[in-house]
Amino acid sequence: MKRTVKILGITAFLSLILVSCNSEPSLQRYFVDHQEMPNFISQDIPVSMVKLDKTNFTEAQHEAFNSVRRLNFLGFNINETNTAIYTVELEKVKTILKQGKYQDLMEFSDKGRKILVKYIGDDDEADEVVVFGSANDMGFAVVRILGDDMSPEKMVALAQALNNANLDESQMQDMLNFFK
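^ thats the sequence. predicted structure below, dont judge the formating
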C-alpha cells in the first residue's frame, strides 16, 4: 500500500512539473534572456516614477493609469553590423506575439515605423498589455505593461491621452538615446 501511494505521489509530482513546463517561448523569457545581450537595452520602470500631467485625463483614463504598476522595456538598436541579428530577433518577437493568448488591440504604421498593441486577457480585463514597435532604420522595442484590473478599452483611451500629454522625456532619455 505504501509503495502504491509513493508511486502515485511521484507520478502526480512529475505530471505537475510536465504540465507547468510550456514549450512555447514567452515574452517574459525573451526579456530575461536578452536584457544583458549586446545591441539590447532593458529598463524596468515603476509607474510611480513616471511624471505626467494628468489634469486633462477623463475618469476612465485615470482608472487606466492607476491600474498600471510597471513598464518593462526591451529595445534592440540596429546598425550596419547587426542587421542579420536584427532580422532573427525581430522574427522571434513576432512569433511570440502571434501566439493565441495575445489579443489584438491596435495596429498602425507611420513613416516606416510599425506599432502593434496586444494584450493577454479577455475583453473586460487585461493581465498584460504589450506595445511592440519596429523600424528598419532604428530597430525594435517591446514594452510590457503590467498591472491590476487593466481594461483593454480603457488602455486604448489612456494611449490616446498619453499621445497628447505633457510627458517628462528626461525619464525616458536613456531609451530614446539608445535608438539614435
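The radius of gyration is 20 Å.
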